Amino acid sequence: MQEKMKLPLDDIPVGRTSREVRILARLFDGFANATRLSILLLLAREGEMRVGDLVEQVGAPQPRVSDHLRSLAQCGFVQARREGRHAYYSITDWRVLEVLRLAHNGLQEYREELIACDVLQDR
């Protein structure tokens, strides 16, 4: 009999009330908003950006971008560096880049299915 391969996350108890599942869901929530995802993609490409440049490229109002940056920073996705009156943001951890890379690969493979999927609506 073949031994079952240990998969990532095998040790996480499942269920809606599982504390670990709820924390893991927060990880995915960081990527599950178009504004936050746009910010992360821009930071992945550019390395570090000023808030004003993010606002311009994301195309969202400055308060909204700042709120999302604050959330991303609080949750450990990005970090801020102040220089005079300007705040510069960058991705905190290479694993955020890896999640973006995996998502990009999945998009290439499942693009048509994702476009046709009307269960998961745009937020």
From TrEMBL:
The record's section on InterPro entries has:
ArsR-like_HTH (IPR011991), HTH_ArsR_DNA-bd_dom (IPR001845), HTH_MetalResp_TranReg (IPR051081), WH-like_DNA-bd_sf (IPR036388), WH_DNA-bd_sf (IPR036390)
Keyword Transcription in annotation: yes
Domain of life of the source: Bacteria
Q: Does the keyword Kinase apply?
A: no
Domain (HTH arsR-type): give its ranges. 16-111
Keyword terms, alphabetized: DNA-binding, Transcription, Transcription regulation
Q: Which molecular-function annotations from GO does this UniProt entry contain?
A: DNA binding; DNA-binding transcription factor activity
Q: Which PROSITE patterns match?
A: HTH_ARSR_2
Q: Write down the PANTHER family for this protein, in alphabetical order.
A: TRANSCRIPTIONAL REGULATOR, ARSR FAMILY, TRANSCRIPTIONAL REPRESSOR SDPR
- Which protein, by its recorded name, is this? Transcriptional regulator
Species for this entry: Rubrobacter taiwanensis
- What taxonomic classification does the UniProt entry list for its organism? Bacteria, Bacillati, Actinomycetota, Rubrobacteria, Rubrobacterales
